[in-house]
Inverse folding.
């Protein structure tokens, strides 16, 4: 599956005094995280790809998946997917 770069924007005009640069950047990161977790939940990307997109390691991804209640053992996982997961873990451990 190929992804084209897209930008998602939204406007909040009700509370402009509360929108600091720090809050804006934090909200932007959280929105990206939620989108990536949604892709992962629907098995549209692998856990490895999700970690790559979020620029985090697999341990950090596991913590985020737990927050979003996403099981690492999705019932749509194929034998090949599981083998890839094991390969990725072995790379981390060795």
């Amino acid at each position: 599956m190929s992804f084209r770069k897209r930008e998602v924007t939204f406007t909040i005009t009700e509370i402009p005094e509360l929108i600091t640069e720090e809050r804006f950047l934090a909200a932007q990161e959280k929105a990206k995280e939620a989108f990536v977790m949604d892709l992962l939940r629907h098995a549209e990307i692998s856990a490895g790809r999700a970690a790559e997109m979020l620029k985090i390691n697999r341990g950090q991804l596991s913590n985020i998946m737990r927050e979003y209640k996403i099981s690492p053992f999705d019932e749509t996982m194929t034998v090949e997917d599981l083998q890839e997961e094991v390969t990725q873990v072995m790379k981390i451990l060795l």
User: Anything to note?
Assistant: Helices lie at 21-41, 47-54, 58-67, 79-93. The radius of gyration is 16 Å. The CA atoms of residues 70 and 90 lie 22 Å apart.
